[in-house]
Amino acid sequence: MHRQPVDLLFLDINMPQMNGLQMLETLTHPPKVILATAHSEFALESYNYNVVDYLLKTIEFARFLKAVDKVVTAHAEEETQRVSLPVPTPASFVIKVDGDWVRLAHDDLLYGQSWGNYVKLFTTQQVYVTALTMTELEQRLPANQFYTHL
Hints:
The protein has about 150 residues and is α/β, with parallel strands linked by helices. The protein has two domains: about 10-85, Response regulator (Rossmann fold, 3-Layer(aba) Sandwich), CATH 3.40.50; about 90-140, no CATH class. Helices cover about 30% and strands about 30% of the residues. The protein contains four helices and eight strands; from the N terminus they run E-H-E-H-E-H-E-E-E-E-E-H. It has helices spanning about 20-25, 45, 60-85, 135-140; strands at about 10, 30-35, 55, 90-95, 100-105, 110-115, 120-125, 125-130. The strands form three sheets. It has a three-stranded parallel beta sheet, with helices on one face. It has a three-stranded antiparallel beta sheet with strand order 6-7-8, with no helix packed on it. The radius of gyration is 28 Å and the shape is elongated. The protein starts with 7 loop residues before the first strand and ends in a 10-residue tail after the last helix. About 10% of the residues are buried.
């Protein structure tokens, strides 16, 4: 497990040298775990270790499939969320103007003009002068919304 990523671990309570729960304590980033054991007395405690399921031996095949299906379903949901959710970008940024902090919405910013070590920001409401360079301004703005012309 230290050399290859593991998606799912079937683990027994009764093992040589340490029990399965003790082994889980040694893992910094444990994979999904299904405990398969004859020891029902550890079932409640096992959920402190975020186990996916607890199977009592002898395990019926239908019960085994149900436990594995929990892992597969959870993995598919995680992947769907990871892939389909857009990464949120801040819709505004903050600048300091005359000692006060001002929040500017991206949609309100029309353009910025370099003014030495300052930038003039033209918005739909007014013009701001702030102690930023154009490079610093570019770093604060999403590249897909703003065009830089040198």
